[in-house]
Structures are given as structure tokens and as C-alpha cells.
Amino acid sequence: MQHRIFIAINLPEDIKKTLVDYQLKWPELPVRWTKKDNLHITLVFIGYASDEDIGRVCKAAEETVSRHQPFLINLNRICYGPPKKIPYSETKSLTGRRDEIANRPPRMVWVKGETPKELSSLREDLEKSLSDSGIRFESEDRGFTSHITLGRVRTWEWRQIEPEERPEVEEEISLSFPVNSIEVMESQLKRGGAEYTILESIKLEK
After folding, report:
1. Distance between CA atoms of 24 and 7, rounded to whole angstroms?
2. Largest CA distance in the chain
3. Where in the numbering of this chain does the Phosphoesterase HXTX domain appear (predicted)?
4. Which of 26, 58, 162, 196 is surrounded by the fewest CB atoms within 10 Å?
5. Which of 58, 200, 184, 187 is closest to 129 using CA atoms?
């Protein structure tokens, strides 16, 4: 049996509640908001994996975490994401491209935070351990950005709104929380949306 797997940092209950409260700030926005219990920071998205692979993922995560200590994450902004970028292969022919890219609907509403060196180090170490264990996963080709998906934009509905009437999402926030563990998670797609289950929670070394 195949399972849809990722490794994440889950958020404290008070942080999740505060972020969900921000969802009420833009009631007119055509967005499918993330459920409170699903708010997280993805470290590595693995995709479909067998039961045997899950065992190897958990072992690699445990070995990685044993080399890292708890750290703090600061969240400082809510905005549209990800950033609109022109693919490198297309940078030589920009005629008309900038306007086209600027008018693309955003895909998500993001909560962005700082990416402390401890987080980058943990993630890089985790990717190396997974690779050494023979686990295939999706690597960030544009560089890792610490973020939480607060909601996903409904593209068709967004396009029906006149450009000058589209809501701005640019909110400065100040939230912080300690990262004391990472979790190996399973995502199950159901009629009401994705449901996440913690398969293993691994504490960072004190």
C-alpha cells in the first residue's frame, strides 16, 4: 500500500488559533482556507511511499534529529505566495513577459517567517539522510523558504474579479514559537479536503 508522506514542523495550538483568526480578515477573498489542524511548515515532501519506505524515512529522521537542538522560528508576514519568478531559461526573451507574470493569479496566501540557520541546517541534513537511505523526494529547486500555507487561491474565481478590486494581502505580524520536534506525516485526500496524520513525532535533542 502506498502512502502520501511528508516531514513537517507542526505549530503550537495558540499559534494556529492566531493564524486562523487572520483568515477572517479577508472574507471576500476567493480562497480555500487551510483548516487549523493542518497548519504546518513542510520540511521535505516525499510523496507516495510504501510501508517499508516509511520505516526508512522514520529512521533517517531519527538519526538526523539526534544531531540537532531546539530552536526558535519567527513569523513576520502574511502575503500572497509563492513569489512570481521568471524561469531562468526565459530571461533572454522578456518582451511582454513581465506583464504576463505580474497578472498571474497568486496560488496561495502564505505566512512567511525567518529561516534561521538552525532550520536550514536541519533541513539540509534531513535531505542528505533521506538521500543516503535511498528515499526519493521532491527537492526545492528555487531554494527553501520558510512558510505556512494559510489558504489556496481559487484561480477561476480570482480571474472574475476586476484587477483594481482584487484584495491586497500584506500583513505584518509578530509571532514566534520554539521547534522542539519534527513529525513524519501522512496526507490523505478526502472529500472535505486533506487530512493529516502524525506517523512519528521525533524530539530534537536538548
Report:
1. 28
2. 54
3. 11-85, 112-193
4. 162
5. 58
Catalytic residues, by residue number, are 40, 147
d(CA 185, CA 198): 5
Per domain, the residue ranges of the chain are 3-203
pTM of the predicted protein model = 0.87
Residue 42 CA to residue 149 CA, distance in Å, equals 9
Predicted confidence at residue 34, as pLDDT, reads 95
Report yes or no: 30 and 154 within 8 Å, Cβ to Cβ: yes
Closest CA to 123 of 106, 146, 102, 100: 146
CATH architecture of 3-203: Alpha-Beta Complex (3.90)
Q: How far apart are alpha carbons 108 and 81 in whole angstroms?
A: 5
- Model confidence pLDDT, tens digit, residues 170-195: 999 999 999 999 999 999 988 777 88
Residues 30/157, Cβ–Cβ less than 8 Å: yes
- What is residue 24's DSSP assignment? T
Helix%, strand%, coil% for the chain, nearest 5: 30, 35, 30
- pLDDT above 70 covers a percentage of the chain that reads 88
* H or E element at residue 97: helix 97-102
Express each pLDDT in 96-106 by its tens digit.
555 555 567 89
Over 60: is that where the pLDDT of 141 sits? no
Is the separation of the CB atoms in 9 and 179 below 8 Å? yes
Q: Respond yes or no on whether the N-terminal peptide bond of residue 27 is cis (omega within 30° of 0).
A: no
